[in-house]
Design goal:
It is a single chain. The chain is α/β, with parallel strands linked by helices. It is 58% helix and 10% strand. The protein is built from 12 helices and 6 strands. A 6-stranded mixed β-sheet has the order 2-1-5-3-4-6, with helices on both faces. Strand 3 and strand 4 (248-250) form a beta hairpin. Helix 9 (276-287) runs antiparallel to helix 10.
């Protein structure tokens, strides 16, 4: 570096590179040393387990000279192993001074203790205490019976009889609920609608509450085709018709029963199908436990009420006519019914009614 001639920045750069290379060399040397140490440790572990077997093999080689049979070879091996074991035992006994090598075939019990499975002592004790044990067993059995607490709640434990009763009760309640719903769905509605093609053509029809909008439009199309006053209805399908009530275009898959029970509302916030009496009657039927005669009377009363329930201000229009004239009144006020908005409005009303 003393002979280097150039700018000072280049000299500094060269010094930095030299230090970096020296540092890399030191790291490489450390890695090499680590690898050699690991290899030496591995070789030492192998050598640790070879000392005993080398001595054993040397003794076997010294004792067996020349050709010998297999049986003699095995006998020599067993003899050398026994001698080795006795040496180890004597060595341990000499170190501790308390261990005694037991003779083969003999067993000495530990002093000051008795075996848990010593049957001789147990038989003697049982013979002496047979009379007392019989008397104490009766008392213990009586005490065991009174250990259970009858006041503990066991409702969380599995009980087949209780489960069967619950399933039976659920089935009866479900059957009763379905019968009530079917009774409400069979109630008749008188719908006053007008076929709208720019002007109203009023018609009437009797349908059940369980009928869907699609089925209602099918009956309307049959009735209007039979009259023969509207030639544009000859070659259309039901999907091209719309049912509008209070400026809300109702979906075909919904039934009148669903819209009544969900309390579907128009833009103004009023119910599309305001039938409070029928809704109250269903609630009272679900909560009352009257006899058969009273239920028959309620059915007669409900049948009389359904005859007076009617739907007005309803319109049936072609979807094509609506697309062409939706910027003109009254089609400009029509919107598709959204059940999520209706459910949110009913839930907010329920919250406002809470005390």
């Amino acid at each position: 570096m003393a002979d280097y001639r150039g700018a000072a920045s280049e000299a500094k750069r060269a010094m930095v590179l030299m230090r970096k290379r020296e540092k890399e060399k030191e790291e490489i040397e450390l890695k090499k040393q680590k690898i050699t140490d690991e290899a030496a440790a591995a070789s030492d572990i192998k050598n640790k387990f070879a000392s005993y077997y080398d001595v054993f093999e040397e003794q076997l080689k010294d004792s067996t000279v020349g050709l010998i049979s297999l049986d003699e070879m095995k006998a020599k091996q067993t003899q050398i192993i026994k001698e080795k074991e006795t040496e180890l035992v004597t060595k341990v006994a000499a170190d501790t001074g308390t261990f005694k090598c037991p003779e083969p075939g003999m067993y000495t019990a530990p002093p000051g203790g008795s075996l848990s499975f010593n049957f001789d002592d147990d038989e003697d004790e049982e013979e002496e205490s047979d009379d007392g044990a019989k008397e104490s067993k009766a008392d213990v059995s009586k005490l065991k019976k009174f250990k259970k607490n009858p006041n503990v709640d066991t409702s969380f434990l599995p009980d087949t009889r209780r489960d069967e009763e619950e399933t039976r009760l659920r089935e009866t309640l479900m059957k009763d609920w379905l019968e009530r719903q079917q009774r409400v769905k069979d109630e008749v509605l008188k719908i006053e609608f007008s076929y709208w093609d720019g002007s109203g053509h009023k018609r009437e029809m009797l349908v059940k509450k369980g009928v869907t909008i699609h089925q209602f439009l099918f009956k309307c199309l049959e009735q209007l085709r039979a009259e023969g006053q509207f030639p544009e209805l000859r070659s259309i399908s039901i999907d091209q018709l719309m049912f509008v009530k209070d400026d809300m275009i109702l979906p075909h898959h919904s039934s009148f029963y669903d819209l009544i029970m969900m309390k579907a509302r128009a833009k103004t916030g009023n119910l599309i199908f305001p039938f409070p009496e029928s809704i109250k009657s269903t609630k009272t039927d679900q909560t009352s436990d009257a006899s058969v005669s009273t239920s028959d009377k309620q059915q007669n009363v409900s049948s009389n009420k359904t005859s007076s329930e009617r739907v007005d201000n309803a319109k049936v229009a072609l979807r094509g006519w609506y697309e062409k004239n939706k910027h003109i009144y009254p089609a400009s006020r029509w919107d598709a019914f959204d059940p999520e908005k209706a459910m949110n409005s009913t839930s907010s009303d329920a919250q406002n009614l809470k005390p």
